[in-house]
Design brief:
With 887 residues, the chain is mainly α. Among the domains are: 46-215 and 233-288, no CATH class; 313-454, no CATH class; 658-768, no CATH class; 860-887, no CATH class. 62% of the residues lie in helices and 3% in strands. The protein is built from 40 helices and ten strands. Strands 3-5-4 form a three-stranded antiparallel β-sheet. The protein has a three-stranded antiparallel β-sheet with strand order 6-7-8. A hairpin with a 3-residue loop joins strand 7 (857-860) and strand 8 (864-865). Helix 4 packs antiparallel against helix 5, helix 5 (75-96) runs parallel beside helix 8 and helix 18 (386-405) runs antiparallel to helix 19 (435-451). The longest helix is centred in the N-terminal third of the chain and has 34 residues, at 240-273. It is flat. It starts with a helix and ends with a strand.
């Protein structure tokens, strides 16, 4: 410190060489230079920056933090930095508004938009993202979209020519010694280090002009020796000592500047030499000094194929089998490259084929390939990627081809590895493996793929096209097992064939005259009924058979099979997938009964599903929000794996409409017949709930939803207005939502009209029977547009069932009403008497409870003990006797 800041002879000699003539010394002997300014204060006074530089440096520092957050995928931090960047840019608009938004600002907006688009499209990454990042991703996406509307033209121009900023940066790095352009005028200054370098260059340039070293300092190329001969203002004001300090500081700053300039030149040289990469990769190289390199989307690296055997090795079945065991030993171990393992196995098949080692060895290796494809995703909940799925289908088809070409090769999962014969032609070939298990796993993977695909996208349609390929594989396996398999294996493959057939409607015989779906289902199911030894396969086949009958309107075979199977007695003990299948079968059975006009049977079949309010969950077509809150994540994953794919769904709106219309046809006549009955029971609680909801509405407008249409039709039927009821149930909107979805829609609509007419007639007779003394059946026939025999039949049934107190007069074709029913006043009086009796009993019960019990008996104030109707009340285990009768 004394060397730099004291008044020794060295410093005086150095300063006298440069500033002795220009700077006069004050009078006095010893002159000491005080240290007036600290280093920070010197920097503040020395560096002069414009407002544009300050604002640009602030923006660049925020951009650097934002890019770091983007690299580590911290979306919540990205949101905070973007908000800071927006506020900082709004402050800098006054300074930068002449030249418009700088290019580095447009660049970060474009890159951030691409980054968010990648995150948004990555469904798997969004699923693994935590809640804070997921919430921040949605918020940041909306804010950025709103913010970028103002700069759409600039962003589009940048996307068309994104390399312009790199060219400008190269020119700037080459000419950095001669000039220092402002950040806004440069092409793409998005790194705060560039501005810091410019600030240091300006500082060193200022210092070089203010204090040039003397020749005696010995500064060569390493310290720098540039500067003007004239003295600076600071030297004039502060004296010699300060000039020396600034001179020494400039030496250090000069060396630092040259080091940075050299690094910039080397970086520019590397950039010119290497091939042009994507814009984002170059930006990461600039900001991080080449530490990170992103190769996604670039040219694929050429990998050498691994050498299976040493050069000159004789390829024999034993050598290939040993190599196969080596590859399989790494299966399932941590760190094993599954993709490389599959490639090795495929290469091993090619080697075996080239050397003609026999079909048995190739079949064994192909078994291992398919198993490795299934093991590629260790998590059971994940589904196979499209490329793996297609490879899996191709491998299974190739394996089936080999099995059909070589029927002499025996395959079984019970064969021990020691007893395998893969190469000896003198003995029968035996290979350990089970093709049925592989096909069953393939079918399960197809179900998982359909469950995890958006059902409203074109991708779902493309994936569904693979079902024909899956069914073809199952059909070929069925042919193979019919010759080579056991009855148990045949039952399993038949069930797979049934599960892909039972829910499909057969629109007619095939053009080639092949077997139709009804005979196919009948043949497969009867074989399972006779040969199966497990209850589960038989139960599933029975339910699928009933479903297929009901789907094709074969009501009586479906009903008889359901009643004979007695499945409804023990179905609660079955596993959840079988219970879901049972619910789907009952729903289809109810819809079939409705199409046949069997309203009561339809209502009974649909009652349990619809009354629970959880039809969506019970049918395996989705989870309710309230049930999701009651489950942990593991249970939720299990429930999602049980869901039925979308193409097998039952239309829930159609199901609810069928149930409500059936309830309306049953409930409205029953309500009219028991209008004054206090003990009347509800047939359908859900239907009554919809009626109450409609009654609560303060303003009744025209019906819009399906439920509102049914409620409006019920009110019209109550009044006996069957035409209005028919218009509400069958109209253009309801046809599009419900009735057109049936296979024979015209028959269903005709059945509905007839049922509405008949039930409206019954409701009319129940409601207005007390008003008429007699009524002509011809008038009723004209009112409800029914033929006379139908009216006669309906009224006769009502009289026989004692629902209507009347008699028929055949000569006059009239209905004579009998006044045996109580009038409205009498009914009200009866209801009042019943309610008063109930109230009195309740009061007595409360009074007895307040007085208390003694010794197990209720004490009465008058008689000591209160008597019941047939003796004393039995309390406390005692028995009392009255009038010789034991109780």
């Amino acid at each position: 410190m004394s060397r730099f800041f004291t008044t020794g002879s060295d410093s005086e000699s150095e300063s006298s060489a440069s500033g002795d003539e220009l700077t006069p010394k004050p009078a006095g002997g010893n002159y000491s230079k005080p240290l007036l300014l600290s280093e920070d204060e010197e920097d503040t006074k020395r560096v002069v920056r414009s407002a544009k530089d300050k604002r640009s440096e602030e923006l660049c520092s925020i951009i650097r933090a934002l890019r770091n957050a983007m690299k580590i995928k911290d979306v919540s931090r990205c949101l905070e930095d973007f908000e800071l960047l927006s506020r900082a840019f709004n402050k800098a608009k006054g300074v930068l508004e002449r030249e418009g938004p700088p290019r580095f600002y447009i660049r970060i907006l474009a890159d951030l938009e691409d980054y968010l688009a990648e995150l948004w499209e990555d469904k798997e990454g969004k699923r693994r993202m935590n809640k804070n990042n997921a919430r921040a991703l949605s918020s940041l996406r909306q804010k950025l979209r709103k913010h970028n509307r103002e700069y759409e033209a600039q962003i589009a121009a940048y996307r068309q020519n994104p390399e312009l900023s790199d060219e400008d940066e190269e020119k700037r790095s080459q000419d950095s010694e001669g000039s220092s352009p402002s950040p806004s005028s440069s092409g793409d200054e998005d790194d705060a280090g560039t501005f810091l370098k410019k600030r240091d260059e300006g500082r060193s340039r200022f210092l070089k002009g203010s204090a040039s070293p003397s020749p005696s300092s010995g500064s060569g190329g390493g310290w720098g020796s540039s500067g003007s001969g004239s003295g600076s203002e600071e030297e004039d004001e502060g004296g010699e000592g300060k000039g020396t300090n600034l001179q020494l500081a400039s030496r250090f700053l000069k060396r630092d500047e040259e080091r940075r300039g050299g690094a910039e030149r080397r970086r520019a040289e590397r950039r010119r030499k290497r091939a042009p990469r994507s814009r984002r990769e170059e930006e990461e190289d600039e900001n991080e000094g080449g530490e990170w390199e992103k190769v996604k989307g670039g040219a694929p690296l050429v990998k050498e194929k691994p050498k299976m055997f040493a050069k000159g090795t004789e390829i024999t079945p034993a050598v290939v089998l040993k190599k196969l065991n080596e590859i399989l030993q790494a299966r399932g171990k941590k760190g094993t490259d599954r993709a490389a393992q599959i490639e090795l196995l495929q290469l091993l098949v090619a080697v075996a084929n080239e050397n003609g080692l026999g079909a048995a060895l190739e079949i064994k290796i192909k078994f291992s390939i398919i198993a490795s494809l299934y093991d590629y995703n260790p998590n059971l909940a994940t589904y196979m990627k499209p490329e793996l799925w297609q490879r899996c289908l191709s491998c299974i088809e190739e394996l089936l081809d080999e099995l059909f070409q070589h029927p002499e090769i025996f395959i079984g999962e019970n064969i021990l590895e020691e007893s395998e014969n893969l190469s000896n032609p003198d003995q029968p070939y035996r290979v350990r493996g089970c093709i049925l298990t592989l096909v069953e796993r393939m079918d399960e993977e197809f179900t998982k793929i359909m469950q995890n695909t958006d059902p409203h996208s074109q991708e779902y349609v493309e994936q569904l096209k693979d079902e024909a390929r899956v069914c073809s594989i199952i059909s070929r396996l069925q042919q193979y097992l019919q010759e080579q398999g056991s009855p148990e294996e045949l039952c399993r493959v038949y069930l797979r064939r049934i599960l892909h057939t039972y829910y499909k409607f057969d629109y007619g015989m095939a053009a080639d005259g092949s077997e139709d779906s009804a005979s196919l289902m009948d043949r497969l199911c009867k074989f399972i009924y006779a040969k199966d030894r497990t209850d589960r396969i038989r139960t599933c086949s029975i339910l699928c058979h009933i479903y297929h009958h009901a789907l094709h309107s074969r009501w009586y075979p479906a009903r008889d099979l359901m009643l004979m199977s007695h499945l409804q007695d023990n179905i609660q003990h079955a596993d959840p997938p079988v219970q879901i299948l049972y619910n789907r079968t009952m729903v289809q059975l109810g819809i079939c009964a409705f199409r046949q006009g069997l309203i009561k049977d339809a209502h009974n079949a649909l009652l349990d599903i619809q009354s629970s309010g959880r039809a969506k969950e019970l049918l395996g077509q989705g989870l309710l929000l309230r049930s999701l809150q009651e489950r942990n994540p593991e249970q939720e994953k299990v429930e999602k794996r049980r869901q039925v794919p979308f193409h097998m769904h039952v239309n829930l709106e159609l199901l609810e409409c069928v149930y409500l219309v059936a309830a309306m046809l049953l409930e409205i006549p029953y309500m009219a017949a028991h209008e004054f009955d206090a003990r009347r029971r509800m047939i359908s609680k859900q239907f009554h709930h919809q009626l109450r909801v409609g009654e609560r509405q303060p303003l009744l407008g025209p019906p819009e939803s399906m439920r509102e249409h049914v409620v409006a039709a019920s009110k019209a039927m109550k009044m006996g207005d069957w035409r209005s009821c028919h218009r509400y149930v069958v109209n253009e909107k309801m046809n599009g939502k419900v009735w057109d979805l049936f296979p024979e829609a015209d028959k269903v609509r005709a059945m509905l009209v007839r049922k509405i007419q008949e039930e409206s007639l019954r409701t009319y007779l129940f409601t207005y029977s007390s008003v008429y003394d007699s009524i002509s059946m011809e008038i009723l026939s004209a009112m409800f547009e029914l033929d006379l025999p139908t009216v006669h039949s309906i009224i006769s049934k009502m009289i026989i069932n004692e629902e209507l107190m009347a008699s028929l007069d055949q000569p006059t074709q009239t209905v004579q009403m009998h006044r045996t029913e109580p009038s409205a006043q009498q009914n009200l009086a009866l209801q009042l008497a019943e309610k008063l009796g109930t109230l009195m009993e309740n009061n007595e019960r409360v009074l007895d409870h307040k007085q208390g019990s003694y010794g197990g008996y209720f004490r009465d104030q008058k008689d000591g003990y209160r008597k019941g109707d047939g003796g004393y009340l039995r309390r406390g285990g005692y028995r009392q006797q009255e009038r010789g009768s034991n109780y």
